[in-house]
Amino acid sequence: MNYTAMYEQGPIRPPSESKSLLLRVSRNCPWNRCAFCPVYKNSKFSKRSIPEIRADLQAMASEAQRVKELASSKGFKGTVDRVLMAEIYEHHPSLTPMAFWLYNGGSSIFLQDADSLFLPADFIREVLDMIKTYFPAVERITTYARSASVIKYSTEDLFALRKAGLNRIHIGLESGCNRVLELIKKGVSAEEHVEAGLKVKQAGITLSEYVMPGLGGKELWQEHAKDTAAVLSAINPDFIRLRTLAVHPATPLHDLKLQGSFTPLNDDEIIAELLLLISNLKGVESEILSDHSLNLLSEVNGKFPKDKEAMVNVLNTYLNLAKKDRDMFRLGKRAGYYQTLNDALNNWPDDSVVKLYERITADNVSVDEFIRSMILQLL
Questions:
Q1: What pTM did the predictor assign?
Q2: What is the distance between the alpha carbons of residues 98 and 95, in angstroms, rounded to a whole number?
Protein backbone atom coordinates (compact mmCIF):
# COMPACT_ATOMS: atom_id res chain seq x y z
CA MET A 1 0.00 0.00 0.00
CA ASN A 2 1.34 3.45 -0.94
CA TYR A 3 1.30 6.35 1.50
CA THR A 4 1.29 10.04 0.63
CA ALA A 5 2.92 12.06 3.39
CA MET A 6 2.30 15.78 3.84
CA TYR A 7 6.03 16.29 4.31
CA GLU A 8 9.22 15.47 2.45
CA GLN A 9 11.42 12.48 3.34
CA GLY A 10 14.66 11.11 1.95
CA PRO A 11 15.49 7.59 0.74
CA ILE A 12 17.51 6.07 3.60
CA ARG A 13 18.16 6.00 7.34
CA PRO A 14 20.18 3.67 9.60
CA PRO A 15 18.46 0.38 10.52
CA SER A 16 18.67 1.43 14.16
CA GLU A 17 16.49 4.46 13.31
CA SER A 18 13.61 2.37 11.95
CA LYS A 19 11.33 3.68 14.72
CA SER A 20 12.39 7.31 14.30
CA LEU A 21 10.44 10.07 12.58
CA LEU A 22 12.44 11.22 9.52
CA LEU A 23 12.99 14.96 9.12
CA ARG A 24 14.74 16.01 5.92
CA VAL A 25 17.08 18.98 6.43
CA SER A 26 19.05 18.51 3.19
CA ARG A 27 18.62 16.52 0.01
CA ASN A 28 21.03 13.81 -1.08
CA CYS A 29 24.79 13.81 -0.37
CA PRO A 30 27.19 16.77 -0.59
CA TRP A 31 30.14 14.43 -1.32
CA ASN A 32 28.47 11.75 -3.46
CA ARG A 33 31.72 10.17 -4.68
CA CYS A 34 32.06 7.04 -2.54
CA ALA A 35 32.78 4.16 -4.91
CA PHE A 36 30.65 1.62 -3.04
CA CYS A 37 27.47 3.71 -2.65
CA PRO A 38 24.70 3.73 -5.31
CA VAL A 39 22.14 5.81 -3.40
CA TYR A 40 22.64 9.40 -4.57
CA LYS A 41 24.70 9.00 -7.74
CA ASN A 42 22.23 10.72 -10.07
CA SER A 43 21.02 13.30 -7.57
CA LYS A 44 22.18 16.81 -6.78
CA PHE A 45 22.76 17.98 -3.23
CA SER A 46 20.67 20.86 -1.93
CA LYS A 47 20.05 22.50 1.40
CA ARG A 48 16.46 22.84 2.53
CA SER A 49 15.34 26.19 3.90
CA ILE A 50 14.19 26.88 7.44
CA PRO A 51 10.65 27.74 6.19
CA GLU A 52 10.50 24.40 4.33
CA ILE A 53 11.60 22.45 7.39
CA ARG A 54 9.22 24.39 9.64
CA ALA A 55 6.35 23.59 7.26
CA ASP A 56 7.23 19.89 7.44
CA LEU A 57 7.32 19.98 11.23
CA GLN A 58 3.93 21.70 11.25
CA ALA A 59 2.56 18.99 8.95
CA MET A 60 4.05 16.27 11.14
CA ALA A 61 2.60 17.81 14.28
CA SER A 62 -0.80 18.07 12.54
CA GLU A 63 -0.65 14.38 11.55
CA ALA A 64 0.35 13.38 15.07
CA GLN A 65 -2.60 15.31 16.47
CA ARG A 66 -4.94 13.68 13.95
CA VAL A 67 -3.76 10.20 15.02
CA LYS A 68 -4.29 11.07 18.68
CA GLU A 69 -7.78 12.39 17.91
CA LEU A 70 -8.61 9.13 16.11
CA ALA A 71 -7.32 7.22 19.13
CA SER A 72 -9.64 9.19 21.38
CA SER A 73 -12.67 9.01 19.09
CA LYS A 74 -12.29 5.22 18.75
CA GLY A 75 -12.18 4.77 22.49
CA PHE A 76 -8.44 4.19 22.82
CA LYS A 77 -7.95 7.11 25.24
CA GLY A 78 -5.36 8.72 22.97
CA THR A 79 -3.12 5.65 22.94
CA VAL A 80 -1.91 4.05 19.72
CA ASP A 81 -1.95 0.27 20.05
CA ARG A 82 -2.00 -2.64 17.59
CA VAL A 83 -5.78 -2.52 17.21
CA LEU A 84 -5.72 1.16 16.32
CA MET A 85 -2.77 0.58 13.97
CA ALA A 86 -4.87 -1.94 12.03
CA GLU A 87 -7.78 0.53 11.94
CA ILE A 88 -5.57 3.33 10.61
CA TYR A 89 -3.85 1.05 8.09
CA GLU A 90 -7.23 0.08 6.64
CA HIS A 91 -9.12 3.37 6.75
CA HIS A 92 -6.49 6.15 7.01
CA PRO A 93 -3.42 4.72 5.22
CA SER A 94 -1.68 8.10 4.80
CA LEU A 95 -1.44 8.31 8.61
CA THR A 96 0.19 4.88 9.00
CA PRO A 97 3.85 6.09 9.23
CA MET A 98 2.94 8.66 11.89
CA ALA A 99 0.83 6.14 13.78
CA PHE A 100 3.74 3.68 13.67
CA TRP A 101 6.03 6.34 15.13
CA LEU A 102 3.61 7.10 17.96
CA TYR A 103 3.00 3.38 18.53
CA ASN A 104 6.75 3.03 19.11
CA GLY A 105 6.84 5.84 21.64
CA GLY A 106 7.16 8.91 19.42
CA SER A 107 10.42 9.76 21.12
CA SER A 108 13.10 9.89 18.39
CA ILE A 109 13.74 11.92 15.23
CA PHE A 110 16.40 11.29 12.59
CA LEU A 111 17.75 14.17 10.46
CA GLN A 112 18.11 13.29 6.79
CA ASP A 113 19.83 12.96 4.29
CA ALA A 114 23.43 11.75 4.10
CA ASP A 115 25.33 14.47 5.97
CA SER A 116 23.38 17.01 7.99
CA LEU A 117 26.55 18.41 9.57
CA PHE A 118 27.73 19.62 6.17
CA LEU A 119 25.38 22.50 7.00
CA PRO A 120 26.39 25.33 9.39
CA ALA A 121 26.12 24.65 13.11
CA ASP A 122 23.78 27.63 13.60
CA PHE A 123 21.41 26.19 10.98
CA ILE A 124 21.30 22.78 12.69
CA ARG A 125 20.81 24.50 16.04
CA GLU A 126 17.77 26.32 14.66
CA VAL A 127 16.36 23.03 13.35
CA LEU A 128 16.83 21.40 16.75
CA ASP A 129 15.07 24.32 18.45
CA MET A 130 12.14 23.97 16.03
CA ILE A 131 11.89 20.25 16.74
CA LYS A 132 11.61 20.99 20.45
CA THR A 133 8.90 23.56 19.73
CA TYR A 134 6.70 21.19 17.74
CA PHE A 135 7.62 17.95 19.54
CA PRO A 136 8.70 18.89 23.08
CA ALA A 137 8.45 15.27 24.27
CA VAL A 138 11.10 14.02 21.81
CA GLU A 139 14.02 12.51 23.73
CA ARG A 140 16.46 11.55 20.99
CA ILE A 141 17.58 13.35 17.81
CA THR A 142 20.16 11.72 15.57
CA THR A 143 21.85 12.23 12.21
CA TYR A 144 24.29 10.90 9.65
CA ALA A 145 27.52 12.88 9.22
CA ARG A 146 30.79 12.51 7.36
CA SER A 147 34.03 12.76 9.32
CA ALA A 148 35.14 15.49 6.92
CA SER A 149 32.15 17.60 7.97
CA VAL A 150 32.49 16.91 11.69
CA ILE A 151 36.09 18.13 11.84
CA LYS A 152 35.03 21.52 10.45
CA TYR A 153 32.89 22.01 13.56
CA SER A 154 34.52 23.24 16.74
CA THR A 155 34.11 21.18 19.89
CA GLU A 156 32.07 24.11 21.21
CA ASP A 157 29.71 23.88 18.21
CA LEU A 158 29.18 20.18 18.82
CA PHE A 159 28.65 20.73 22.53
CA ALA A 160 26.02 23.41 21.73
CA LEU A 161 24.24 20.97 19.41
CA ARG A 162 24.21 18.35 22.14
CA LYS A 163 22.70 20.88 24.55
CA ALA A 164 20.09 21.68 21.91
CA GLY A 165 19.10 18.02 21.66
CA LEU A 166 21.41 16.21 19.19
CA ASN A 167 22.04 12.89 20.94
CA ARG A 168 23.76 10.65 18.40
CA ILE A 169 25.87 10.95 15.26
CA HIS A 170 26.18 8.07 12.78
CA ILE A 171 29.47 8.20 10.85
CA GLY A 172 30.39 5.99 7.91
CA LEU A 173 33.94 5.08 8.85
CA GLU A 174 33.94 2.19 6.33
CA SER A 175 37.69 1.67 6.76
CA GLY A 176 40.63 2.92 8.79
CA CYS A 177 43.09 2.05 6.02
CA ASN A 178 44.25 5.03 3.97
CA ARG A 179 44.87 2.88 0.88
CA VAL A 180 41.29 1.60 1.03
CA LEU A 181 39.88 5.07 1.74
CA GLU A 182 41.71 6.38 -1.31
CA LEU A 183 40.52 3.48 -3.45
CA ILE A 184 36.86 4.07 -2.58
CA LYS A 185 37.20 7.87 -2.80
CA LYS A 186 35.91 8.41 0.71
CA GLY A 187 37.36 11.92 0.82
CA VAL A 188 38.78 11.52 4.30
CA SER A 189 41.89 9.99 5.87
CA ALA A 190 42.24 7.57 8.77
CA GLU A 191 43.69 10.41 10.83
CA GLU A 192 40.67 12.60 10.08
CA HIS A 193 38.35 9.75 11.07
CA VAL A 194 40.08 9.68 14.47
CA GLU A 195 39.92 13.45 14.85
CA ALA A 196 36.20 13.52 14.03
CA GLY A 197 35.34 10.61 16.27
CA LEU A 198 37.18 12.08 19.25
CA LYS A 199 35.46 15.45 18.73
CA VAL A 200 32.03 13.83 18.84
CA LYS A 201 32.90 11.95 22.02
CA GLN A 202 34.39 15.02 23.68
CA ALA A 203 31.12 16.85 23.06
CA GLY A 204 29.23 14.11 24.91
CA ILE A 205 27.33 12.94 21.81
CA THR A 206 26.83 9.20 21.34
CA LEU A 207 28.94 7.99 18.41
CA SER A 208 28.04 5.16 16.04
CA GLU A 209 30.79 4.18 13.56
CA TYR A 210 29.96 2.02 10.53
CA VAL A 211 32.55 -0.48 9.32
CA MET A 212 32.36 -2.33 6.00
CA PRO A 213 33.89 -5.85 6.05
CA GLY A 214 35.11 -6.82 2.60
CA LEU A 215 35.89 -3.29 1.45
CA GLY A 216 39.61 -4.00 1.07
CA GLY A 217 38.99 -6.84 -1.36
CA LYS A 218 41.52 -9.62 -1.78
CA GLU A 219 44.22 -7.01 -2.42
CA LEU A 220 43.99 -5.10 0.90
CA TRP A 221 41.93 -7.20 3.31
CA GLN A 222 44.58 -7.54 5.99
CA GLU A 223 45.47 -3.84 5.93
CA HIS A 224 41.78 -2.99 5.97
CA ALA A 225 41.17 -5.13 9.05
CA LYS A 226 44.24 -4.11 11.05
CA ASP A 227 44.13 -0.40 10.25
CA THR A 228 40.39 -0.20 10.88
CA ALA A 229 40.92 -1.86 14.27
CA ALA A 230 43.63 0.72 15.05
CA VAL A 231 41.34 3.66 14.20
CA LEU A 232 38.45 2.22 16.20
CA SER A 233 40.78 1.59 19.12
CA ALA A 234 41.90 5.23 19.00
CA ILE A 235 38.29 6.51 18.95
CA ASN A 236 36.57 3.99 21.25
CA PRO A 237 33.10 4.76 19.79
CA ASP A 238 29.92 3.86 21.62
CA PHE A 239 28.82 1.59 18.77
CA ILE A 240 30.64 -0.26 15.98
CA ARG A 241 28.12 -1.35 13.36
CA LEU A 242 29.05 -3.96 10.76
CA ARG A 243 27.85 -3.49 7.18
CA THR A 244 29.18 -6.28 4.93
CA LEU A 245 30.08 -5.05 1.45
CA ALA A 246 27.95 -6.01 -1.51
CA VAL A 247 29.20 -4.60 -4.80
CA HIS A 248 26.21 -2.91 -6.43
CA PRO A 249 26.25 -2.93 -10.26
CA ALA A 250 25.50 0.82 -10.37
CA THR A 251 28.68 1.87 -8.53
CA PRO A 252 32.23 2.84 -9.47
CA LEU A 253 33.43 -0.07 -7.30
CA HIS A 254 31.70 -2.44 -9.70
CA ASP A 255 33.65 -0.81 -12.53
CA LEU A 256 36.88 -1.37 -10.58
CA LYS A 257 35.88 -5.01 -10.17
CA LEU A 258 35.36 -5.38 -13.94
CA GLN A 259 38.73 -3.70 -14.55
CA GLY A 260 40.42 -6.20 -12.25
CA SER A 261 41.70 -3.67 -9.70
CA PHE A 262 39.24 -4.80 -7.01
CA THR A 263 38.54 -8.46 -6.24
CA PRO A 264 35.60 -9.07 -3.89
CA LEU A 265 35.94 -11.48 -0.97
CA ASN A 266 33.62 -14.41 -0.48
CA ASP A 267 31.85 -15.07 2.82
CA ASP A 268 34.67 -17.24 4.22
CA GLU A 269 37.25 -14.57 3.50
CA ILE A 270 35.08 -11.83 4.99
CA ILE A 271 34.66 -13.84 8.20
CA ALA A 272 38.45 -14.31 8.38
CA GLU A 273 38.86 -10.55 7.91
CA LEU A 274 36.29 -9.83 10.61
CA LEU A 275 38.11 -12.18 12.99
CA LEU A 276 41.34 -10.27 12.34
CA LEU A 277 39.62 -6.93 12.97
CA ILE A 278 37.96 -7.98 16.23
CA SER A 279 41.13 -9.65 17.48
CA ASN A 280 43.05 -6.40 16.96
CA LEU A 281 40.67 -4.08 18.82
CA LYS A 282 42.53 -2.76 21.86
CA GLY A 283 41.20 -0.90 24.88
CA VAL A 284 37.72 -0.28 23.51
CA GLU A 285 34.46 -0.43 25.43
CA SER A 286 32.33 -0.30 22.29
CA GLU A 287 29.24 -2.31 21.54
CA ILE A 288 29.57 -4.26 18.30
CA LEU A 289 26.32 -4.69 16.39
CA SER A 290 25.75 -6.92 13.38
CA ASP A 291 22.40 -5.36 12.55
CA HIS A 292 22.29 -5.64 8.78
CA SER A 293 20.77 -8.31 6.53
CA LEU A 294 23.98 -8.75 4.51
CA ASN A 295 26.01 -9.86 7.54
CA LEU A 296 26.46 -13.63 7.51
CA LEU A 297 26.96 -14.11 11.25
CA SER A 298 24.35 -11.90 12.89
CA GLU A 299 25.29 -13.22 16.33
CA VAL A 300 28.61 -11.34 16.23
CA ASN A 301 27.20 -8.85 18.71
CA GLY A 302 28.38 -7.80 22.12
CA LYS A 303 30.06 -5.34 24.43
CA PHE A 304 33.82 -5.06 24.60
CA PRO A 305 35.77 -6.34 26.38
CA LYS A 306 33.49 -8.86 28.14
CA ASP A 307 31.93 -10.35 24.99
CA LYS A 308 35.05 -10.40 22.82
CA GLU A 309 35.79 -14.08 23.47
CA ALA A 310 32.24 -15.13 22.60
CA MET A 311 32.38 -13.22 19.31
CA VAL A 312 35.76 -14.71 18.42
CA ASN A 313 34.39 -18.17 19.23
CA VAL A 314 31.47 -17.71 16.82
CA LEU A 315 33.83 -16.67 14.03
CA ASN A 316 36.20 -19.57 14.70
CA THR A 317 33.34 -22.07 14.92
CA TYR A 318 32.26 -21.05 11.43
CA LEU A 319 35.77 -21.11 9.98
CA ASN A 320 36.44 -24.55 11.48
CA LEU A 321 33.47 -26.14 9.72
CA ALA A 322 34.13 -28.34 6.71
CA LYS A 323 33.82 -26.42 3.45
CA LYS A 324 30.62 -28.25 2.46
CA ASP A 325 29.05 -27.38 5.82
CA ARG A 326 30.11 -23.72 5.49
CA ASP A 327 28.58 -23.61 2.02
CA MET A 328 25.32 -25.17 3.20
CA PHE A 329 25.10 -22.75 6.12
CA ARG A 330 25.71 -19.82 3.80
CA LEU A 331 22.95 -21.02 1.47
CA GLY A 332 20.58 -21.68 4.35
CA LYS A 333 21.22 -18.30 5.94
CA ARG A 334 20.86 -16.34 2.70
CA ALA A 335 17.69 -18.28 1.78
CA GLY A 336 16.14 -17.66 5.20
CA TYR A 337 16.23 -21.22 6.57
CA TYR A 338 18.65 -20.26 9.36
CA GLN A 339 18.77 -17.12 11.48
CA THR A 340 22.05 -17.82 13.28
CA LEU A 341 24.93 -20.28 13.14
CA ASN A 342 23.80 -21.82 16.41
CA ASP A 343 20.29 -22.22 15.00
CA ALA A 344 21.75 -24.06 12.02
CA LEU A 345 23.98 -26.37 14.08
CA ASN A 346 21.06 -27.28 16.33
CA ASN A 347 18.95 -28.22 13.31
CA TRP A 348 21.61 -29.73 11.09
CA PRO A 349 21.23 -30.44 8.28
CA ASP A 350 17.97 -28.92 7.10
CA ASP A 351 16.55 -31.09 4.29
CA SER A 352 15.56 -28.08 2.20
CA VAL A 353 19.09 -26.68 2.41
CA VAL A 354 20.60 -30.05 1.45
CA LYS A 355 18.33 -30.23 -1.60
CA LEU A 356 19.24 -26.67 -2.59
CA TYR A 357 22.95 -27.43 -2.25
CA GLU A 358 22.62 -30.62 -4.29
CA ARG A 359 20.70 -28.86 -7.03
CA ILE A 360 23.25 -26.06 -7.31
CA THR A 361 26.28 -28.36 -7.36
CA ALA A 362 24.57 -30.72 -9.84
CA ASP A 363 24.16 -27.75 -12.20
CA ASN A 364 27.89 -26.98 -11.86
CA VAL A 365 27.14 -23.57 -10.36
CA SER A 366 29.54 -22.45 -7.63
CA VAL A 367 28.03 -21.63 -4.26
CA ASP A 368 29.82 -18.26 -4.35
CA GLU A 369 28.22 -17.42 -7.68
CA PHE A 370 24.75 -18.50 -6.54
CA ILE A 371 24.96 -16.51 -3.29
CA ARG A 372 26.22 -13.47 -5.16
CA SER A 373 23.10 -13.61 -7.37
CA MET A 374 20.90 -13.93 -4.25
CA ILE A 375 22.49 -10.87 -2.66
CA LEU A 376 22.10 -8.80 -5.82
CA GLN A 377 18.35 -9.33 -5.57
CA LEU A 378 18.42 -7.65 -2.15
CA LEU A 379 20.22 -4.50 -3.33
A1: 0.93
A2: 5
